[in-house]
Design brief:
A hairpin with a 6-residue loop joins β8 and β9. The chain has no helices and nine strands. With about 140 residues, the chain is mostly beta strands. The chain starts with about 25 loop residues before the first strand and ends with a strand. The chain has a four-stranded antiparallel sheet with strand order 4-3-6-7, with no helix packed on it.
Length: about 140
């Protein structure tokens, strides 16, 4: 006979009861538009939690004395960090009741575009529709 055991795990602190399940957010990243640009962005959409959020952006895993790149205090459930270079980022969100959650997301960039130069042999217009015609070697 098999027995199935379900274990429910939640985190709480005595005195200020805080369940980590009360805070949830979703991350979305948009890559940089061109190679080498700092034009990426990360959008945080807070699904559940107690308004009065502190959102922090780190470029390394948060440690006790590590400085964040950016911090925002907001009551809004959506926030976007702009002008980010390619990197892996750590986002922490803390709500007004002390709920805390951390997630990781990457911002990427397109590969460097490399092209070979071409030599134009002839350039003339087509008399029918004035379109330029190029012949290259």
């Amino acid at each position: 006979m098999r027995k199935t055991i379900f274990i429910l795990v939640c985190f709480c602190f005595i005195n200020n009861i805080v369940f980590s399940a009360d805070l949830e957010f979703v991350l979305k990243s948009d890559s940089a538009r061109c190679y080498g640009e700092s034009s990426g962005k990360i959008t945080i959409n807070i699904k559940t939690g107690n308004p009065g959020f502190t959102i922090r952006l780190y470029n390394k895993k948060p440690a006790s004395k590590q400085k964040y790149i950016s911090q925002i205090n907001t009551i809004e459930s959506t926030y976007t960090f702009f002008e980010l270079p390619e990197n892996n980022y750590y986002i922490t969100v803390e709500d007004s009741k002390g709920g805390y959650l951390q997630k990781t997301i990457g911002v990427y960039q397109p590969d460097k575009l490399e092209a070979e130069p071409i030599t134009i042999e002839k350039c003339f217009s087509s008399p029918e529709n004035n379109d330029a015609i190029l012949k290259a070697n």
